[in-house]
Amino acid sequence: MSLSDPVLRLAADLIAIDSRSSLSNLPVAERIEQELAGFEIERLDYTDANGVAKRALVAHKGPRQGYALSGHMDTVPATGWQSDPWAPRLDAAGMLHGLGSVDMKGQLAAAIIAARQAAADVPATLLITTDEETTKEGARRVARDSRLARSLDLAGIFVVEPTGLVPVRGHRSHIAFTATAHGLQAHSSTGKGVNANWKLLPFLAAMREVHDALRSDPALQDADYDPPFSDFNLILDNHGTAMNVTVAKATAQIKFRYSAKVDPKPVLHAVRRAARDAGIDLAEQMEGFPPELPADHPLIARATRLTNRAPRTAPYGTDASELQALAPCVVLGPGDIALAHTPQECVRAQDLVDAVPVLARALRDGIA
Ligand SMILES: [Zn+2]
């Protein structure tokens, strides 16, 4: 196998363009547009919270309705990479290496090639987002603002993140809490400072109770997920304060993930009440509602027929939490999620090549 296969060549071209979420994705969006001759294209331009120019793309050809394939253009940071993350490389074992190879420029290339191959009477839509790894803002813009996507009356969306081509019918969404206690910085020996940690402590004790309840109370759990209990991960930060300085600012961050059958309100209320009681600031960032379809939903049945594999659920999140506002979503793509977000990120090249006919059938089967 070589990089001469069109899917691998496009995947390699996309990997070679640095599109970490902190940067503008315009170069990679422009490269993708070169592949979309014959498609009607809508550009959704916006400026992210850090003032960086971003673009999501909606592309369509053929009749209205039908199905969409969706992927994101951004990648995680290059943490830990020893080799050049933007130098795509196919090794002797047939693995394509590079930042974004499996999450998810390889899958995006497969989706683009599959949509391009669709016959003239088959509707083919691409929803190409960015900021998936951070805020999901690209997907939110597509769902909320895309005139083209809304006009199509889509029957379903295949989010082509790596699932080993097993249909994922539901996943968790998260609420990110940031609690901040303020003190007064001074030399700790003088007695003139105020240590913010003492103000944070009662809040943390209450969070310990929430954490333990999530682990022990079946009413807060979902047996359809592995693990059945929700993630409630706590990170503490004193922002580099030395031992002889009173802490001016103490921050607790908590990522709470929940699935569709779990009501997040008891947790939301407990966190808000604890912050109020402790007299500290609380910020919340909430993703869209967790997407989940029953195993007998027509879109899940379609995905099951396509792959001959039983649907399952996943503990991680995708753009489906936003895109479900447009049409029902299933997560289905080639590659192994375990290889994502690591400095050894890679994907089996043959898996990308083999996924193209599957994604083409996802668009075509039973249509016209
Ligand atoms: Zn991804």
Automatic annotation (TrEMBL):
Stored Gene3D superfamilies: 3.30.70.360, Zn peptidases (3.40.630.10)
Tagged with keyword Metal-binding: yes
Pfam families: M20_dimer (PF07687), Peptidase_M20 (PF01546)
Top-level taxon in the UniProt lineage: Bacteria
Residue ranges of domain Peptidase M20 dimerisation in the record: 170-278
UniProt xrefs under InterPro entries: Bact_exopeptidase_dim_dom (IPR036264), Peptidase_M20 (IPR002933), Peptidase_M20_dimer (IPR011650), Peptidase_M20A (IPR050072)
Keywords attached to this entry: Cobalt, Hydrolase, Metal-binding
Protein name in the entry: M20 family metallopeptidase
Organism of origin: Falsiroseomonas selenitidurans
Lineage: Bacteria, Pseudomonadati, Pseudomonadota, Alphaproteobacteria, Acetobacterales
